[in-house]
Amino acid sequence: MNKILVIGALGQIGSELILALRKKYGTENVIAADLRPDTNKKLGEDGVFEVVDVMDKDELRNIIKKHNIDSIFHLAAILSAVGEKNPALCWNVNINGSFNVLDLGVELGLKRIIIPSSMAVWGKNVEKENVKQDSVLQPTSVYGITKVTGELICDYYVQRFGLDCRGLRYPGIISHGTLPGGGTTDYAVDIFYSAVKGEKYTCFLSEDTMLPMMFMDDCIKATMQLAEADFNKLEHHSGFNVTAMSFTPKQLAAEIKKIIPDFEIEYKPDFRQAIADSWVWSIDDSVARKEWGWKPDFDITAMTAEMIRVLSEKHKKGLI
């Protein structure tokens, strides 16, 4: 990868991935792009930032040509909770936007395209524990439906056009860098903000809702590691299982209380509970470990300590 474009660069993952990519490949070689302007100049101050709608294929083509892009990380998507409120928008952005990226990949001869998937691809008739790489995909949320479709489309472009397209099935991502953007696992980020502020947290999932999770540092590590893997050694392409830990809101609250003993939590499940109930409890990522050497660094204890350390510092400075 010589010249990289990150679409959806202002999102939870994109905003941190762009910094890691620039550190490794050089700021001048990594272009940030998003539908929203970079009003805080977070990504455009030191490097190039472009405003682009992934639905505007012509403008996207112009940016790829303008910067001689050879690799794309396509992270722009409508997430699960938002998708349930607007299914048509979710489909349009997640599917037709990806088609634009893939078509331009073929047309312009791009070297590599990374389009993430999600644990939302599973649903009915799948085992809840240690779900396998090739388990049945029958999602019940529109977000999950778009992710299954996206995986199949990416694999089709690999087979039909020889396009190098790759993706990971992200579990819930926990980060102290950017606020979450409408996902069902957002509680596992929101809870830390309440904890460091000394506020009681109201969780929108039940206390025993077990879900797979990953700390952002591991998310970035996995994304870059897959992107840099030898294509010839990959038997799978668009939907690699990856994970780091699984826990319930009650278990996470208990970890927080080890550091902040006075932390309080209550549970008031809302519409997101039905989405979470359709998802798996834990993931078998042995295929990713075998094909490109995946291995996480953070468990729930290490992640909790780091989240509280960083957010506590931000709170003292009045940044949150």
* Name of the level-1 CATH class of the largest domain: Alpha Beta
Shape: globular
Estimate what percentage of residues fall within beta strands: 5-15%
Q: If you compute it from the alpha carbons, what radius of gyration comes out, rounded to the nearest whole angstrom?
A: 19 Å
Distance between the termini: 36 Å
**CATH-defined architecture of the largest domain:** 3-Layer(aba) Sandwich
The CATH superfamily title of the largest domain: NAD(P)-binding Rossmann-like Domain
Domains counted in the coordinates: how many? 2
Instruction: Give me the number of helical elements.
Output: 11
Question: Could you say which structural class the secondary elements and strand pairing correspond to?
Answer: alpha/beta
Strand order of the largest sheet: 3-2-1-4-5-7
Give the overall average pLDDT. Answer: 93
- CATH topology (fold) name of the largest domain: Rossmann fold
Task: Characterize the structure shown.
The protein has 320 residues and is of the alpha/beta class. It has two domains: 195 residues, Rossmann fold (3-Layer(aba) Sandwich), CATH 3.40.50; 96 residues. Helix content is 42%, strand content 14%. It is built from eleven helices and 14 strands. The strands form four sheets. Strands 3-2-1-4-5-7 form a six-stranded parallel sheet, with helices on both faces. It has a three-stranded parallel sheet with strand order 6-8-12.
